[in-house]
Design a protein that fits this description.
The complex is a heterodimer of chains A (293) and B (219). Chain A has helices at 6-16, 20-31, 36-57, 72-80, 87-105, 121-132, 137-157, 162-165, 167-185, 190-202, 220-239, 248-261, 278-288; one strand spanning 109-111. By secondary structure, chain A is an all-alpha fold. The longest helix of chain B is centred in the N-terminal third of the chain and has 18 residues, at 16-33. Chain B has 7 helices and 11 strands. In chain B, α2 packs parallel to α4. The chains are: A mainly alpha (293), B alpha+beta (219).
Amino acid sequence: MEYLTIQELVETAEKKKMSIGAVILEDQAVQMEQSKEKLLSQMEENFRVMEKAVESGMDPELRSTSGLTGGDAWKMMQYAKKGGITGSFMTKAMARALAVSEYNAAMGKIVAAPTAGSCGIMPGCLVTMMEAHQIPREKIIEGMFTAAGFGIVIAKRASIAGAQGGCQAECGSAAAMTAAALTEIMGGTPKQAADACAMAIKNQLGLVCDPVAGLVEIPCIKRNVGGIMIAFSAADMALAGMESKIPVDEVIDAMKEVGDSMPCAMKETALGGLANTPTAKRMKEQVFGKKEA
Amino acid sequence: MNVFDIIGPVMIGPSSSHTAGAVRLGRVAWQILEDKPVKAVIELSGSFAQTYKGHGTDKALIAGIMGMDSYDERIRCSLELAREQGLEYEFHEVNIPDAHPNTAHIFLYGESGKTADIQGASVGGGNILVEKINGMDVAYTGQSTTILVRHYDRPGAIAAVTNFMAYSDVNIGNFRLSRQKKGGEAIMTIEIDGAAPEGLTAQLKVLPHVISAIILKVI
């Protein structure tokens, strides 16, 4: 497959009467000249790193290298045990997304999915799905192939780098890929997975990349929480039978157009948005001292 | 692009250019030293100089100098490990004119008196570009297996090396020569297709005018 359109993935899956995840696995085995088993076990290994990051990041004492962040995942998990407004399913998923993102900022071992800045979204959703809905591990791993296939198309048609497309390209892509995976994991059709992807992107269109002091911490860590909420809600909308009125490939193109027209100050340069607030500037001085190039 | 470019790599946070790329630069210096490093003097230029502490770039560079890979969980505590293992280090913030914003210049001193001097940049996504080795221009990216041959600038030195590689059925994809001055020390940067056959560097080292030969694997 060429991975130039999501439509190609949907049509191939429909024709073969397979899930998109299974189609991607089959195709990648051919393209990478490796057995399906080998690819499955490599993906499983990545999932294991994600699970471990969820666990290690859930530490009240965890602090980032800069000292600006850490410990919020643990706080959220204590709260999640009581349920919270959205119930313990959603609040635990939030805590897990925070754990992985905070662990990343503390120089922990993570899986870029698709990037380090958005690395909490997929594990936050998948680990929680597995626990709450008793999803078998193999199904989760297959879902990761679904996610990766959607990610390749997004990377080719638009971008997955904050410096090129803003945060919509990082957390937006992560949420969109994950939404598609969640839909297939719950038995949705290929078309529904594509709709879930489209609806997730639509909800993060225009999101800028404005990291305080240029660090992958503020607001990145909390945007991973936003990412899981959007991934779950987009998947739920698709599974309810809602369709994206704008076809997914056109939505991805819109994301590219929005990213291209975003000013440079809003694309990872730490010159605009939240990074340009008085508090952010004070934090920057606190971390790096008062010298400026 | 494949599925593991999207869900992957497995890496140490917080950012591929400030950790993975920095570890790789340190690791190249370690490979070139071919000795146990006891002292590292590291000059940081541009954005690296401004932000290295917040990103943990210092820990990443030292981890690489100690031979760690970019996914090694000990990177976070590499500075403590360095002190335990008797590796002294200093960081200096400098301005290297016309250098990429994420540039590091690493001087290494080994236990048995060897030294290495490399300058390179972390160019994004964990990729690196090593621009200078011992003051000579190179262009090592880690995308293909690369053989670095330090030698004296004498007639036949290059022919001897490339003939031997032809004889060993190794195809050269790219060749670059740099020398300090006519007749002085020089360096060949040879990118080859596929992996290097076993024992290649040992055999290259005994060729006339060759000082050292090392293989840098694909990273």
